Every structure is written in C-alpha cells, then in structure tokens.
Amino acid sequence: MSGVSLHLLRHGATARPGRLLGRSDEPSTANGIAACVAQAAKLTVARIVSSDLCRARAAGEAVANAQGVQLTIDPRWRELDFGDWDGLASADVDPARHAAFWNDPDAAPPPNGERWSALVTRVAAALEDLPREPVLVITHGGAMRAALAVVCGFPVQSLWAFDLPYAALLTLRRWPEGSGAQIVGLRP
Description:
Blueprint: E1 4-10, H1 30-40, E2 47-50, H2 54-67, E3 71-73, H3 95-103, H4 116-129, E4 135-139, H5 141-152, H6 156-159, E5 169-174, E6 181-187
Parallel strand pairs: 1-4, 2-3, 2-4
Antiparallel strand pairs: 1-5, 5-6
Helix pairs in contact: 1-2, 4-5
C-alpha cells in the first residue's frame, strides 16, 4: 500500500505580523512570497491549491508559475474567522477570553467569529475533494492544524504544539480511504 503526499504550506510573512488575521485580506510581503517559492522548489506536485485570501493566493500564483502547475483557488482553506478580534494584536484581546479560546476554541470562539468545529468541517470537505495525487495546499496556520486534526486525529490542544511559522511546510503521507496518514516532515 502506497500513500500520496499532501504538502501544506503556510503563506508568507505579512506586513503586520503577530495579528489575529482570519478573514482580513492582509497581503504577504515580497520576501514572504519568495520564502514560499523557496520552500516549494524541491516538491514535485500534480496540483497546487490555495486559499482565496491574497496572502495565500499570491504565494500560490508565484509557486504555480515557478513550477508550471495549475493553481486552483478554494476558499475552504481560509483561516479561522476571528470575528471581532480579526486584525487585532493578541495583546489587544481580553486576556481571559483569549485564554478561554486557546483552551477550547469550540466552546469559546471569538465574539462573532467561527467555531473550531466549523473550520475543521470545511477543511475536511476540502481534503475530501483533493485528488489522490501529490498536492501542495497553500493556506493558513489554523487550516493546517485543522487538517492535522482531520487526517491524523490530533485533539485540538495537541495542535497548538506544532510550530507553524510563516512559510512552514508540513508534509503528510495520506493512505487510501480510511486507513490514516503519517507526518513525513515539517520544515519551518
């Protein structure tokens, strides 16, 4: 039984790092896009998919052009919607509410924001629709963690242990339907 590679690449650095950027369409810097192109340079993929938010989409366009592979835009790979916190620095969020969110993002979502389970549900649907061939998905830290929850079965509190800086590349080997996956590598 052979698995298929699924590469998840976080978008490059933004001009305002350290903010809770969910639905905000904050662009990546030129250096951030270049870092994504460099991370993807050694990959061989049949398809590239990206979130529709410009910080992921611009990296997707650059990687697709560099590799001569078609880019598909899929909004299901967007970041968690942080609602009223969107665009704020973590220090500007009420500490008790912020801690409650990180402890249980489904029970204590950001005000007017998305529940963790909703993110997991849409990422699961996006994963289901990926072809069974090597794919690179350029997305966001929250969506990458949601994919780990779906594909590998990690509980939410374990997912925060994964350091996923800008342009981090996470490679998974997906096995045929229902037989699981394994983490092959993580390159910050």
